[in-house]
Amino acid sequence: MIRKPLQFCDVATRRIKRASEVTKNTLLQEMILQALRNQLVFRYVLMDSWFASKDNFELILSKHKHFVAVLKDNWLVALSQADKEQGRFVRVDSLQSNKQVMRGWLKCFSLAESLRTKMAAPVG
């Protein structure tokens, strides 16, 4: 359970909202580090789009682990090294939905990663 002890007023809605003292990404990173301290044996971290961030990816790779993550539709990816070098990126949601694995370079990330386009049909 995530505690949200901080209260603030949302200027746009004029409603009181609550916030946590730590972010969800900080909690994920602490959980990964605790698993390593506990000598839990694993090779992959599986995460949904809420946790897909550059900082999380870098932490996982720095610990010599791999990750499988759902990317939000607005993430930018280059489909070749040349495209990345020339700044030609496309949104993830513009990729063809043929379920093939392709190599891609995320704009926010320095390493090439394997991408699989839209594995499942949208819900709803």
Describe the protein in words.
The protein is α+β, with helices and mostly antiparallel strands. Helices cover 23% and strands 27% of the residues. It has helices at residues 24-37, 54-62, 81-85; strands spanning 6-10, 15-19, 44-47, 66-69, 76-78, 90-91, 101-106, 112-116. A 4-stranded antiparallel β-sheet has the order 6-5-7-8. Strands 1-2 form a two-stranded antiparallel sheet. A two-stranded parallel sheet has the order 3-4.
pLDDT average, as an integer? Answer: 83
Shape: flat
Q: Level of helix content?
A: 10-25%
Succession of helices and strands: EEHEHEEHEEE
For the report, how would you describe the main beta sheet? 4 strands, antiparallel
Low-confidence stretches: 118-124
Termini separation (Å)? 28 Å
What fraction of residues sit in β-strands?
25-35%
Radius of gyration, taken over Cα atoms and rounded to an integer in Å: 18 Å
Strand order of the largest sheet: 6-5-7-8
Number of spatially distinct domains: 2
Structural class: alpha+beta
Work out the helix count: 3
Q: Tally of extended strands?
A: 8
Oligomer: single chain
